[in-house]
Design goal:
This protein is mainly beta and about 120 residues long. The protein has one helix at about 60-70; strands at about 25-35, 40-50, 55-60, 80-90, 95-105. It contains 1 helix and 5 strands. It has a 5-stranded antiparallel beta sheet with strand order 3-2-1-4-5.
């Protein structure tokens, strides 16, 4: 049974989108989106967009630092890079919640070539 949040037409990825396993995504661009916060204020937040989905990934500092450690601080250099997005339990405001985290997508090693006999 799918997670109830998948019933809503969200613009952004959530932990429920990775319930079935990790998402392997290729970065197309980094944008800034105005997001409504729970306190009624609007905040401009960095959002990654990918070739494989219409949904963006709102970057928190943890994920942004992780991507920067993989591909460098210049966000223009992130375009075309592939990341793996997975769900993990994290502590937020004293509670354990599901969140999305990122790690480097490591390409499979090339298949061994069979030698001539």
């Amino acid at each position: 049974m799918p997670h109830y949040m998948k019933s809503f037409d969200g613009r952004f990825l959530g932990a429920w989108d990775a319930e079935g396993g990790d998402l392997v995504l290729t970065i197309q661009r980094l944008g800034i989106e105005a997001l409504d916060r729970r306190n009624g204020q609007t905040e401009n937040c960095p959002v990654l967009f990918f070739g494989e989905t219409k949904k963006g990934l709102v970057l928190n500092k943890t994920n942004a630092k992780c991507i920067a450690s993989m591909f460098g601080d210049d966000t223009d250099g992130w375009t075309g890079k592939t990341i793996r997005v997975y769900r993990a339990q994290v502590e937020m405001a004293g509670s354990q919640v599901w969140a999305l985290r990122v790690r480097l997508e490591v390409a499979a090693p090339p298949a061994a070539k069979k030698g001539r006999k």
